[in-house]
Design a protein that fits this description.
The chain is mostly helical. The chain is built from 4 helices and no strands. The radius of gyration is 17 Å and the shape is extended.
Length: 84
């Protein structure tokens, strides 16, 4: 459980730094910084929670082997697209 919590926290913090950062800077120009940070944290937490819930539902509907195969194909596809 400790590994899960640590992974969750690290991904949560890492995700806050991409496109969310641009929105946070824009909102921080108008609202108090602590309000913006709390809102970003809550939104990111809810986003990841919904993704986990959707993943749990999909695993009951789609076999894990098929999900792994599709994930592998998409990984290779995005890699080739990036090289292009």
């Amino acid at each position: 459980m400790a590994a899960f919590i640590a992974s969750f926290i690290f991904v949560l913090l890492a995700e806050m730094g991409d496109k969310t950062q641009l929105l946070a800077m824009a909102f921080a120009a108008r609202y108090a910084a602590w309000k913006v940070l709390v809102a970003v944290f809550i939104a990111t937490f809810l986003n990841h929670s919904l993704a986990v819930a959707a993943g749990r539902v999909l695993v009951t509907v789609i076999p894990m082997d098929l999900i792994s195969f599709i994930a592998a194909l998409s990984f290779v596809g995005f890699g080739l697209w990036t090289i292009r």
